[in-house]
């Protein structure tokens, strides 16, 4: 787990709330949502490229280049959305000799037309873009298999008014992944943006060893309560922890971890006042909050 915070991170640069202030004082920070995954421990793939990517890569010894060379263990990146907190880091990878990016069609479109990372990277590195289709697994280096799972039609704000037909309402603006490894029965599901608990989500989670899911908000009205605005968690494409937790409790078996925690979420601040009850609810369902730097071996 390279990073476990939602956009803005923890502390957020312009936020002086109790949680951000404590994080500033204690150093209990979270960087923005990003994962590295490998089937053989040698070939690694990023899942998302956060704005904090440079520091995240430097903090992970597994991702260091071979001594005396520029050979990186990173073989590419898979995107779960075109949101800025998942894609700004692609520009940080421009020093790479080559860069392979896997994304769904609407995400590729947004990264060409709205936030033109594709054209921006082209003069710097040999970027190769591959289109992912939900339900169709791709075979990656090191025996890694990634099956994209359509999770939602919420598009980034910068892509709200892009020209062209057919982008509205597509369920693959946001995806998750079901990862398996050749010659192994191990399975990990990664879904940092989960709009609703659908039968497809339920099927993907069933039989998984570890499920890492959307922990942006603790409750549907969390953000409205903090900011006085009207935006609900669900309206922003994030199923609140309180609303996914009953499903986890119903489906015991996998290890459940919540990630992409917003700085308003009390679960992002373990031990601070008011976090005891929600933490107890999590533990009762066999779930926990992911932490930056966590290494999960299956
Ligand atoms: C989200 O997860 O909903 C987005 O990343 C929000 C944002 O930071 O724009
Ligand atoms: Mn986000
Ligand atoms: Zn804050």
Automatic annotation (TrEMBL):
Location of the Metallo-beta-lactamase domain: 44-260
Gene3D superfamilies named among the record's database cross-references: Ribonuclease Z/Hydroxyacylglutathione hydrolase-like
Pathway annotation from the record: Cofactor biosynthesis; pyrroloquinoline quinone biosynthesis
Recorded coiled-coil stretches: none
Keyword Secreted attached: no
Pfam families hit by this protein: Lactamase_B_2 (PF12706)
SUPFAM superfamilies: Metallo-hydrolase/oxidoreductase
Alphabetical list of InterPro entries matching this protein: Metallo-B-lactamas, PQQ_synth_PqqB, RibonucZ/Hydroxyglut_hydro
Protein name: Coenzyme PQQ synthesis protein B
């Amino acid at each position: 787990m390279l990073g476990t915070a939602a956009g803005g991170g923890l502390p957020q640069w312009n936020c002086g709330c109790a949680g951000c202030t404590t994080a500033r004082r204690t150093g209990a920070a979270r960087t923005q949502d990003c994962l590295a995954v490998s089937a053989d421990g040698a070939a690694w793939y990023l899942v998302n490229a956060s704005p904090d990517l440079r520091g995240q890569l430097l903090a992970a010894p597994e991702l260091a280049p071979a001594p005396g060379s520029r050979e990186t263990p990173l073989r590419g990146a898979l995107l779960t959305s075109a949101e800025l907190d998942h894609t700004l880091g692609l520009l940080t990878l421009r020093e790479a000799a080559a860069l392979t990016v896997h994304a769904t069609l609407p995400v590729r479109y947004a990264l060409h037309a709205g936030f033109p990372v594709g054209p921006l990277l082209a003069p710097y590195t040999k970027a190769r873009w591959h289109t992912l289709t939900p339900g169709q697994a791709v075979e990656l280096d090191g025996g890694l298999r990634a099956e994209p799972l359509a999770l939602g039609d919420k598009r980034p704000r910068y892509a709200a008014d892009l020209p062209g037909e057919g982008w509205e309402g597509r369920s693959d603006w946001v995806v998750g992944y079901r990862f398996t490894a050749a010659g192994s029965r191990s399975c990990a599901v990664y879904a940092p943006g989960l709009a609703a608990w659908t039968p497809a989500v339920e099927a993907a989670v069933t039989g998984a060893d570890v499920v890492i899911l959307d922990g942006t908000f603790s409750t549907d009205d969390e953000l409205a309560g903090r900011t006085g605005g009207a935006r609900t968690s669900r309206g922003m494409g994030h199923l609140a922890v309180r609303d996914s937790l009953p499903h986890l409790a119903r489906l015991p078996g996998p290890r459940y971890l919540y990630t992409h925690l917003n700085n308003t979420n009390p679960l992002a601040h373990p031990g601070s006042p008011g976090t005891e009850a929600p933490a107890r609810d999590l533990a009762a369902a066999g779930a926990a909050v992911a932490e930056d730097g966590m290494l999960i071996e299956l």
